[in-house]
Design goal:
- GO terms for molecular function: hydrolase activity, acting on carbon-nitrogen (but not peptide) bonds, in linear amides.
- The protein folds into two domains: 283 residues, Jelly Rolls, CATH 2.60.120.580; 75 residues, Acetamidase/Formamidase-like domains (Endonuclease I-creI), CATH 3.10.28.
- Helix content is 15%, strand content 32%.
- It has a nine-stranded mixed beta sheet with strand order 2-5-17-7-14-18-19-21-20. Strands 3, 4, 6, 12, 13, 15 and 16 form a seven-stranded mixed beta sheet that branches. Strands 1, 8, 9, 10 and 11 form a five-stranded antiparallel beta sheet that branches.
- A hairpin with a 2-residue loop joins strand 10 and strand 11.
- Helix 4 packs across helix 5.
Protein backbone atom coordinates (compact mmCIF):
# COMPACT_ATOMS: atom_id res chain seq x y z
CA UNK A 1 0.00 0.00 0.00
CA UNK A 2 1.41 3.38 -1.00
CA UNK A 3 1.73 6.37 1.32
CA UNK A 4 -0.80 8.16 -0.92
CA UNK A 5 -3.22 5.26 -0.59
CA UNK A 6 -2.80 5.19 3.18
CA UNK A 7 -3.49 8.93 3.34
CA UNK A 8 -6.62 8.50 1.19
CA UNK A 9 -7.99 5.70 3.39
CA UNK A 10 -7.09 7.49 6.63
CA UNK A 11 -8.86 10.66 5.55
CA UNK A 12 -11.98 8.77 4.47
CA UNK A 13 -12.06 6.59 7.58
CA UNK A 14 -11.41 9.69 9.64
CA UNK A 15 -8.50 10.23 12.00
CA UNK A 16 -10.49 13.17 13.38
CA UNK A 17 -12.70 12.78 16.50
CA UNK A 18 -16.19 11.63 15.62
CA UNK A 19 -15.35 10.81 12.00
CA UNK A 20 -16.24 7.11 11.91
CA UNK A 21 -16.79 6.32 8.24
CA UNK A 22 -15.91 2.92 6.81
CA UNK A 23 -15.13 3.27 3.09
CA UNK A 24 -17.25 1.30 0.66
CA UNK A 25 -15.38 -1.60 -0.96
CA UNK A 26 -14.43 -1.34 -4.61
CA UNK A 27 -16.61 -3.62 -6.77
CA UNK A 28 -14.77 -4.49 -9.96
CA UNK A 29 -16.69 -6.24 -12.79
CA UNK A 30 -17.81 -9.77 -12.05
CA UNK A 31 -16.39 -12.69 -13.99
CA UNK A 32 -18.52 -14.76 -16.34
CA UNK A 33 -20.58 -11.87 -17.73
CA UNK A 34 -22.34 -14.01 -20.35
CA UNK A 35 -24.94 -15.10 -17.78
CA UNK A 36 -28.42 -13.68 -18.42
CA UNK A 37 -28.55 -12.57 -14.79
CA UNK A 38 -25.51 -10.24 -15.00
CA UNK A 39 -24.71 -7.44 -17.42
CA UNK A 40 -21.27 -5.85 -17.25
CA UNK A 41 -20.61 -2.22 -18.22
CA UNK A 42 -18.00 -3.29 -20.76
CA UNK A 43 -17.49 -1.32 -23.99
CA UNK A 44 -19.48 -4.00 -25.84
CA UNK A 45 -22.49 -3.43 -23.57
CA UNK A 46 -22.64 0.37 -23.40
CA UNK A 47 -23.46 3.43 -25.44
CA UNK A 48 -21.63 6.60 -24.46
CA UNK A 49 -23.67 9.77 -24.62
CA UNK A 50 -26.47 8.55 -26.86
CA UNK A 51 -29.67 6.60 -26.27
CA UNK A 52 -30.69 3.32 -27.94
CA UNK A 53 -33.28 3.28 -30.69
CA UNK A 54 -35.59 0.61 -32.02
CA UNK A 55 -33.02 -0.37 -34.64
CA UNK A 56 -30.31 -1.25 -32.09
CA UNK A 57 -29.50 -4.84 -31.25
CA UNK A 58 -29.97 -5.75 -27.58
CA UNK A 59 -26.91 -6.72 -25.55
CA UNK A 60 -29.07 -9.03 -23.44
CA UNK A 61 -32.54 -10.59 -23.77
CA UNK A 62 -34.58 -11.49 -20.70
CA UNK A 63 -37.99 -12.87 -19.87
CA UNK A 64 -40.47 -10.72 -17.92
CA UNK A 65 -39.98 -11.20 -14.20
CA UNK A 66 -36.24 -11.84 -14.53
CA UNK A 67 -33.93 -10.19 -12.04
CA UNK A 68 -30.80 -8.79 -13.67
CA UNK A 69 -27.65 -7.53 -11.96
CA UNK A 70 -26.39 -4.57 -13.99
CA UNK A 71 -23.14 -2.67 -13.56
CA UNK A 72 -23.06 1.05 -14.32
CA UNK A 73 -20.10 3.40 -14.53
CA UNK A 74 -20.07 7.13 -13.97
CA UNK A 75 -19.12 9.54 -16.72
CA UNK A 76 -17.09 11.55 -14.21
CA UNK A 77 -13.45 10.61 -14.62
CA UNK A 78 -13.76 9.36 -18.21
CA UNK A 79 -14.74 12.55 -20.06
CA UNK A 80 -12.50 14.47 -22.41
CA UNK A 81 -12.18 17.52 -20.15
CA UNK A 82 -10.86 15.14 -17.48
CA UNK A 83 -8.25 13.63 -19.79
CA UNK A 84 -10.31 10.55 -20.77
CA UNK A 85 -8.06 8.65 -18.33
CA UNK A 86 -9.78 7.81 -15.03
CA UNK A 87 -6.61 6.40 -13.44
CA UNK A 88 -4.75 9.67 -13.97
CA UNK A 89 -7.76 11.84 -13.14
CA UNK A 90 -8.53 10.18 -9.81
CA UNK A 91 -4.84 9.92 -8.92
CA UNK A 92 -5.00 13.71 -8.63
CA UNK A 93 -7.36 13.20 -5.67
CA UNK A 94 -5.22 10.51 -4.05
CA UNK A 95 -7.09 7.48 -5.38
CA UNK A 96 -4.74 4.53 -6.09
CA UNK A 97 -4.94 2.83 -9.48
CA UNK A 98 -6.34 -0.40 -8.04
CA UNK A 99 -9.38 1.49 -6.72
CA UNK A 100 -10.33 2.75 -10.19
CA UNK A 101 -12.88 0.54 -11.97
CA UNK A 102 -11.44 -1.45 -14.84
CA UNK A 103 -14.65 -1.11 -16.86
CA UNK A 104 -14.45 2.69 -16.57
CA UNK A 105 -10.86 2.49 -17.87
CA UNK A 106 -11.99 0.29 -20.78
CA UNK A 107 -14.91 2.58 -21.69
CA UNK A 108 -12.63 5.64 -21.70
CA UNK A 109 -10.10 3.88 -23.92
CA UNK A 110 -12.35 2.00 -26.35
CA UNK A 111 -15.88 3.42 -26.53
CA UNK A 112 -16.92 5.93 -29.17
CA UNK A 113 -17.88 9.38 -27.93
CA UNK A 114 -18.32 12.70 -29.73
CA UNK A 115 -18.16 15.70 -27.36
CA UNK A 116 -20.66 18.41 -28.23
CA UNK A 117 -22.89 15.97 -30.09
CA UNK A 118 -23.26 13.15 -27.59
CA UNK A 119 -24.22 13.62 -23.97
CA UNK A 120 -21.80 12.69 -21.18
CA UNK A 121 -23.55 9.62 -19.76
CA UNK A 122 -22.43 6.00 -20.12
CA UNK A 123 -25.54 3.89 -20.81
CA UNK A 124 -25.63 0.15 -20.05
CA UNK A 125 -27.90 -1.71 -22.47
CA UNK A 126 -30.22 -1.99 -24.27
CA UNK A 127 -31.94 -5.04 -22.78
CA UNK A 128 -34.77 -6.71 -24.69
CA UNK A 129 -37.74 -7.83 -22.57
CA UNK A 130 -39.52 -10.65 -24.37
CA UNK A 131 -43.17 -10.00 -25.17
CA UNK A 132 -43.14 -6.24 -24.57
CA UNK A 133 -45.02 -4.41 -27.33
CA UNK A 134 -45.82 -0.78 -28.11
CA UNK A 135 -48.85 0.17 -26.06
CA UNK A 136 -47.69 -1.92 -23.10
CA UNK A 137 -46.01 -0.51 -20.01
CA UNK A 138 -42.64 -1.72 -18.75
CA UNK A 139 -42.36 -1.78 -14.95
CA UNK A 140 -38.74 -1.40 -13.83
CA UNK A 141 -38.48 -2.50 -10.21
CA UNK A 142 -35.39 -1.25 -8.38
CA UNK A 143 -34.58 -4.08 -5.99
CA UNK A 144 -31.09 -3.18 -4.83
CA UNK A 145 -28.43 -0.52 -5.47
CA UNK A 146 -24.88 -1.05 -4.27
CA UNK A 147 -22.00 1.47 -4.46
CA UNK A 148 -18.99 0.31 -6.45
CA UNK A 149 -16.43 2.84 -5.19
CA UNK A 150 -15.81 4.89 -2.02
CA UNK A 151 -15.58 8.16 -3.96
CA UNK A 152 -17.09 10.25 -6.75
CA UNK A 153 -17.41 13.75 -8.15
CA UNK A 154 -19.79 16.72 -8.35
CA UNK A 155 -19.00 18.83 -11.41
CA UNK A 156 -19.80 22.34 -12.54
CA UNK A 157 -18.70 22.88 -16.10
CA UNK A 158 -19.25 24.54 -19.46
CA UNK A 159 -21.16 27.53 -18.05
CA UNK A 160 -24.09 25.26 -17.23
CA UNK A 161 -25.98 24.60 -14.04
CA UNK A 162 -28.58 26.86 -12.43
CA UNK A 163 -26.22 29.86 -12.50
CA UNK A 164 -24.55 29.87 -15.92
CA UNK A 165 -22.26 32.85 -16.26
CA UNK A 166 -21.75 33.03 -12.49
CA UNK A 167 -20.32 29.61 -11.69
CA UNK A 168 -17.81 28.31 -12.40
CA UNK A 169 -16.11 31.64 -11.85
CA UNK A 170 -13.32 30.94 -14.34
CA UNK A 171 -13.12 29.33 -17.76
CA UNK A 172 -12.24 25.87 -16.44
CA UNK A 173 -14.70 23.31 -15.04
CA UNK A 174 -14.69 22.70 -11.29
CA UNK A 175 -14.63 19.12 -10.02
CA UNK A 176 -15.49 18.65 -6.35
CA UNK A 177 -14.22 15.32 -5.05
CA UNK A 178 -16.47 13.45 -2.60
CA UNK A 179 -15.76 10.43 -0.44
CA UNK A 180 -18.31 7.87 0.68
CA UNK A 181 -18.76 5.06 3.17
CA UNK A 182 -20.86 3.70 6.00
CA UNK A 183 -21.12 5.98 9.03
CA UNK A 184 -22.98 5.82 12.34
CA UNK A 185 -26.15 7.13 10.67
CA UNK A 186 -25.85 4.97 7.55
CA UNK A 187 -24.32 5.63 4.11
CA UNK A 188 -22.54 8.97 4.32
CA UNK A 189 -20.82 11.32 1.91
CA UNK A 190 -18.11 13.85 2.79
CA UNK A 191 -16.62 16.93 1.16
CA UNK A 192 -13.47 18.54 2.52
CA UNK A 193 -13.42 22.35 2.77
CA UNK A 194 -11.02 24.88 4.29
CA UNK A 195 -13.49 25.22 7.16
CA UNK A 196 -13.69 21.48 7.82
CA UNK A 197 -15.63 18.45 6.62
CA UNK A 198 -19.18 18.54 5.27
CA UNK A 199 -21.11 15.31 5.82
CA UNK A 200 -24.43 14.37 4.25
CA UNK A 201 -26.60 11.25 3.84
CA UNK A 202 -26.44 9.21 0.65
CA UNK A 203 -29.44 8.08 -1.43
CA UNK A 204 -28.39 5.81 -4.28
CA UNK A 205 -30.39 6.00 -7.51
CA UNK A 206 -30.04 5.74 -11.27
CA UNK A 207 -30.51 9.09 -12.97
CA UNK A 208 -31.22 7.40 -16.30
CA UNK A 209 -33.72 4.61 -16.88
CA UNK A 210 -35.50 4.53 -20.21
CA UNK A 211 -36.83 2.61 -23.19
CA UNK A 212 -35.84 2.99 -26.83
CA UNK A 213 -37.69 5.45 -29.02
CA UNK A 214 -39.33 4.38 -32.29
CA UNK A 215 -36.90 6.09 -34.65
CA UNK A 216 -33.47 5.49 -36.10
CA UNK A 217 -31.71 8.64 -34.86
CA UNK A 218 -29.66 8.27 -31.68
CA UNK A 219 -30.61 11.12 -29.37
CA UNK A 220 -28.28 12.70 -26.83
CA UNK A 221 -28.45 11.16 -23.37
CA UNK A 222 -29.08 14.57 -21.77
CA UNK A 223 -32.77 15.50 -22.22
CA UNK A 224 -35.44 13.23 -20.70
CA UNK A 225 -38.83 12.64 -22.30
CA UNK A 226 -41.81 10.29 -22.58
CA UNK A 227 -39.25 7.52 -23.08
CA UNK A 228 -37.87 8.19 -19.59
CA UNK A 229 -34.13 8.60 -19.90
CA UNK A 230 -32.37 11.24 -17.82
CA UNK A 231 -35.28 12.00 -15.48
CA UNK A 232 -33.04 12.47 -12.39
CA UNK A 233 -35.81 11.86 -9.85
CA UNK A 234 -33.99 11.28 -6.56
CA UNK A 235 -36.86 9.21 -5.12
CA UNK A 236 -36.00 6.33 -7.46
CA UNK A 237 -34.06 4.51 -4.73
CA UNK A 238 -34.24 0.79 -3.87
CA UNK A 239 -37.87 -0.24 -3.51
CA UNK A 240 -39.17 2.14 -6.17
CA UNK A 241 -40.75 1.19 -9.50
CA UNK A 242 -40.61 3.25 -12.68
CA UNK A 243 -43.35 2.76 -15.29
CA UNK A 244 -42.38 3.45 -18.90
CA UNK A 245 -44.69 3.34 -21.96
CA UNK A 246 -43.16 0.81 -24.38
CA UNK A 247 -42.39 2.37 -27.76
CA UNK A 248 -40.65 -0.43 -29.70
CA UNK A 249 -40.93 -4.24 -29.67
CA UNK A 250 -39.21 -5.76 -26.61
CA UNK A 251 -38.87 -2.30 -25.05
CA UNK A 252 -35.02 -2.13 -25.27
CA UNK A 253 -34.55 -0.77 -21.75
CA UNK A 254 -31.31 0.83 -20.55
CA UNK A 255 -29.87 2.43 -17.40
CA UNK A 256 -27.04 4.77 -16.46
CA UNK A 257 -26.05 8.04 -14.76
CA UNK A 258 -25.58 6.46 -11.30
CA UNK A 259 -25.83 8.82 -8.32
CA UNK A 260 -24.83 8.48 -4.67
CA UNK A 261 -26.85 11.58 -3.72
CA UNK A 262 -28.72 14.45 -5.35
CA UNK A 263 -30.60 17.43 -4.03
CA UNK A 264 -33.79 18.29 -5.89
CA UNK A 265 -32.79 20.72 -8.61
CA UNK A 266 -29.25 19.33 -9.14
CA UNK A 267 -28.24 22.98 -9.37
CA UNK A 268 -24.46 22.73 -9.97
CA UNK A 269 -25.06 20.59 -13.11
CA UNK A 270 -24.35 17.15 -11.66
CA UNK A 271 -25.19 15.27 -8.50
CA UNK A 272 -22.70 13.18 -6.48
CA UNK A 273 -21.81 11.08 -9.51
CA UNK A 274 -20.42 7.64 -8.71
CA UNK A 275 -20.90 4.07 -10.03
CA UNK A 276 -23.56 1.64 -8.84
CA UNK A 277 -24.37 -2.05 -9.22
CA UNK A 278 -28.13 -2.34 -9.72
CA UNK A 279 -30.39 -5.34 -9.24
CA UNK A 280 -33.52 -4.72 -11.31
CA UNK A 281 -36.60 -6.69 -12.33
CA UNK A 282 -38.54 -6.01 -15.50
CA UNK A 283 -42.26 -6.76 -15.76
CA UNK A 284 -44.61 -6.14 -18.66
CA UNK A 285 -48.08 -4.68 -18.11
CA UNK A 286 -49.99 -5.39 -21.29
CA UNK A 287 -52.25 -2.95 -23.10
CA UNK A 288 -55.27 -4.96 -21.84
CA UNK A 289 -54.09 -4.88 -18.21
CA UNK A 290 -53.05 -1.28 -17.96
CA UNK A 291 -55.44 1.28 -16.60
CA UNK A 292 -53.24 4.34 -16.93
CA UNK A 293 -49.73 5.62 -17.64
CA UNK A 294 -49.34 7.19 -21.04
CA UNK A 295 -46.21 8.82 -19.65
CA UNK A 296 -43.44 7.83 -17.23
CA UNK A 297 -44.24 7.87 -13.54
CA UNK A 298 -42.83 6.19 -10.45
CA UNK A 299 -44.08 4.57 -7.28
CA UNK A 300 -42.74 3.63 -3.86
CA UNK A 301 -44.44 1.92 -0.94
CA UNK A 302 -45.40 5.37 0.33
CA UNK A 303 -45.85 7.60 -2.71
CA UNK A 304 -47.12 7.87 -6.25
CA UNK A 305 -44.65 10.04 -8.19
CA UNK A 306 -46.02 11.69 -11.35
CA UNK A 307 -43.37 13.38 -13.49
CA UNK A 308 -43.62 16.53 -15.60
CA UNK A 309 -41.11 17.45 -18.31
CA UNK A 310 -40.60 20.49 -20.53
CA UNK A 311 -37.83 22.86 -21.59
CA UNK A 312 -39.71 25.58 -19.70
CA UNK A 313 -39.87 25.00 -15.94
CA UNK A 314 -43.34 26.55 -15.64
CA UNK A 315 -44.59 24.25 -18.38
CA UNK A 316 -42.92 21.26 -16.66
CA UNK A 317 -44.85 22.15 -13.50
CA UNK A 318 -48.12 22.23 -15.44
CA UNK A 319 -47.23 18.92 -17.10
CA UNK A 320 -46.64 17.35 -13.68
CA UNK A 321 -49.99 18.60 -12.37
CA UNK A 322 -51.73 17.11 -15.39
CA UNK A 323 -49.83 13.83 -14.85
CA UNK A 324 -50.96 13.79 -11.21
CA UNK A 325 -54.57 14.41 -12.21
CA UNK A 326 -54.35 11.61 -14.76
CA UNK A 327 -53.11 9.17 -12.11
CA UNK A 328 -55.82 10.11 -9.62
CA UNK A 329 -58.58 10.01 -12.22
CA UNK A 330 -57.61 6.72 -13.84
CA UNK A 331 -56.27 4.79 -10.87
CA UNK A 332 -58.63 6.00 -8.14
CA UNK A 333 -61.65 7.22 -10.18
CA UNK A 334 -61.50 10.63 -8.49
CA UNK A 335 -63.35 13.44 -10.23
CA UNK A 336 -60.90 15.86 -11.84
CA UNK A 337 -62.02 18.95 -9.85
CA UNK A 338 -61.78 17.03 -6.56
CA UNK A 339 -58.39 15.62 -7.50
CA UNK A 340 -57.19 19.15 -8.30
CA UNK A 341 -58.33 20.36 -4.87
CA UNK A 342 -56.68 17.41 -3.12
CA UNK A 343 -53.37 18.06 -4.87
CA UNK A 344 -53.49 21.67 -3.81
CA UNK A 345 -54.20 20.76 -0.19
CA UNK A 346 -51.94 17.77 0.37
CA UNK A 347 -49.34 17.12 -2.34
CA UNK A 348 -45.81 18.52 -2.58
CA UNK A 349 -44.32 19.29 -5.98
CA UNK A 350 -40.52 19.44 -6.30
CA UNK A 351 -38.13 20.48 -9.03
CA UNK A 352 -36.31 17.29 -10.07
CA UNK A 353 -33.60 19.07 -12.07
CA UNK A 354 -33.07 22.31 -14.00
CA UNK A 355 -29.90 21.33 -15.87
CA UNK A 356 -30.84 18.74 -18.54
CA UNK A 357 -32.27 20.99 -21.29
CA UNK A 358 -35.70 19.44 -20.65
CA UNK A 359 -36.43 20.37 -17.05
CA UNK A 360 -38.28 18.16 -14.59
CA UNK A 361 -40.84 18.42 -11.81
CA UNK A 362 -42.14 15.52 -9.75
CA UNK A 363 -44.90 15.23 -7.15
CA UNK A 364 -45.25 13.15 -4.00
CA UNK A 365 -48.81 11.83 -3.65
CA UNK A 366 -49.23 9.94 -0.36
CA UNK A 367 -50.86 6.60 -1.05
CA UNK A 368 -52.07 6.40 2.56
CA UNK A 369 -54.35 9.39 1.90
CA UNK A 370 -56.17 7.34 -0.72
CA UNK A 371 -56.30 3.98 1.07
CA UNK A 372 -60.00 4.22 1.88
CA UNK A 373 -61.06 4.78 -1.71
CA UNK A 374 -62.82 1.92 -3.46
CA UNK A 375 -61.09 0.96 -6.69
CA UNK A 376 -60.25 -2.17 -8.66
CA UNK A 377 -56.99 -3.75 -7.60
CA UNK A 378 -54.18 -3.02 -10.09
CA UNK A 379 -52.44 -5.89 -11.87
CA UNK A 380 -49.94 -7.64 -9.61
CA UNK A 381 -47.01 -6.47 -11.72
CA UNK A 382 -48.12 -2.86 -11.31
CA UNK A 383 -47.57 -2.70 -7.56
CA UNK A 384 -44.24 -1.67 -6.01
CA UNK A 385 -41.51 -4.27 -5.95
CA UNK A 386 -40.46 -6.18 -2.90
CA UNK A 387 -37.36 -4.56 -1.49
CA UNK A 388 -34.01 -6.27 -1.14
CA UNK A 389 -31.60 -4.37 1.07
Amino acid sequence: MTDQHEAFEAELAGDKPGALIEPFPVLQPLKGGADEAYLAASPENVLWGRLPTGSDQPVRTVRPGTEVLIDTVSHEGVLEDQGRDPVAFFAGFGVPADEVLTDAVAVAARSAHTPGLDGPHVITGPIAVLGARPGDVLAVHVLELTPRTPYGVVSNRHGRGALPGELPAGPDPVFTFCRAGNGPQGPTGTIETDAGTITFPLRFFLGITGVAQAEDRHHSSVPPGRHGGNIDVSMMTAGATLYLPVQVPEALVYVGDPHFAQGDGEVALTAFEAPLRARLRFDVITRDQRAHADRPYAETDEYLIPIGLDEDLDAAMRDCVRAALELLERRYRIERAVAYAYLSAATDFAVSQVVDIVQGVHARIRKADLAALARPDPPAAEGPASVQT
